[in-house]
């Protein structure tokens, strides 16, 4: 389970870099501070911190909460009709990955 969470934290970190690159492709400078991927990465770091308690159910619940919040933020971004097609495709791809992971985590929780 710990390896799974470590992979997810790294994946969210990479999502942030993909989005920053997309912003730079349009000649803009990415903002520092909170973002959907930043929040997702922080959530995964929080889940990793829960490992000290070694409570798998708590870890899974926190992961589910974080993934749901991430999906909502991605939906908010996708509701922006002014997104360039390449940006929309990237955001949708990332959201779909998060949704799949959310379903995987829910299945893990059901096994507990």
Automatic annotation (TrEMBL):
Q: Which Pfam families match?
A: DUF2383
- Where the record annotates domain DUF2383, the positions are 1-79
- State the name under which the record lists this protein: DUF2383 domain-containing protein
Originating species:
Xanthomarina gelatinilytica
């Amino acid at each position: 389970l710990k390896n799974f969470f470590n992979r997810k934290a790294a994946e969210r970190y990479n999502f942030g870099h993909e989005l920053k690159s997309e912003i730079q492709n349009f000649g803009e400078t990415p903002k520092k501070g909170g973002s959907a991927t930043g929040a997702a990465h922080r959530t995964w770091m929080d889940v990793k911190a829960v490992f000290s308690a070694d409570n798998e159910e708590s870890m899974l619940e926190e992961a589910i909460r974080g993934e749901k919040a991430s999906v909502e933020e991605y939906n908010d971004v996708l509701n922006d009709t002014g997104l360039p097609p390449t940006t929309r495709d990237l955001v949708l791809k990332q959201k779909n990955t998060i949704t799949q992971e959310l379903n995987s985590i829910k299945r893990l929780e059901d096994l507990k």
